[in-house]
Amino acid sequence: MELGEIFSYALVYPFNNIKALVIYLVLGIILGIAVSGTVAAMASGVAVNNLWAVIGSGVIGFIVALVLGFMITGYELDIIKYGIERSSRGPEIHFIRQFFNGVKVFVVQIVYMIIPIIIAAIMAIIFQHWLSAIINFIVSVIFGLALMMAQCRLAKTEDLSDALAIGEAIGDISNVGIVNLLIFIIAIALISVVLLFICCLIAQWNSIVGGILIGIVVIYLVFFGGRALGLLYSNV
């Protein structure tokens, strides 16, 4: 599929599965309120010099955000899978399975982020600063793109070992096309930045309303981005 087709299909995809969209919008709103509410509670605790209020609100908010984040990420993985299969249907909701799939995604993200950090540390010792910076940038881009491919591989099989086959994930970059991937990332980033910037402006006026809007936008971007990535990977 061409990139234009992919984005045109992905933009309307969230509305093809209204039931799941509504359920995850509610979860996204709760997540947005939890995050903004936690920040506000921690700020109030700091203002009155109440350490326990800061710690308590921080821990509770972190746990709620983590659980909801894993569930949402796990559902996004199913959206990617359906995109790879080019199925017009929306994935069924299985909170427990999707929670653990979200944990798998987190593990994959950690692995693909740690390796460039290790390489950067080694390069800083061996080479001069400018050469080290160039190598680190190239490695970071490669592993960032490979992470996208690893998530697609995980979505396809739900097998963590497939996602952690780093060499094969890097090989998928050339199969999809590095130019296509870069254009894809830039387009997704621009859309995300514009929508979230608007939400942040509103959040400065009213944190609760802003939190709700951020939750809605995040879920829309999850559906849209997951569908687009799956369709892009389906070209492999």
Helix content: over 70%
Specify the number of helices.
Answer: 9
- Low-pLDDT sequence parts: none
Average of per-residue pLDDT values: 84
Notes on the structure:
The chain contains nine helices and no strands. The protein has helices at residues 3-12, 18-47, 51-84, 95-126, 129-157, 160-163, 166-176, 178-205, 207-233. The longest helix is centred in the first third of the chain and has 34 residues, at 51-84. The chain is globular. The mean pLDDT is 84.
What topology does this entry show?
Blueprint lengths: L2 H10 L5 H30 L3 H34 L10 H32 L2 H29 L2 H4 L2 H11 L1 H28 L1 H27 L3
Helix pairs in contact: 1-9, 2-3, 2-9, 3-4, 3-5, 3-9, 4-5, 5-7, 8-9
Pick out its properties:
mainly alpha; about 240 residues
Brief summary of the model shown:
The chain is mainly α and 236 residues long.
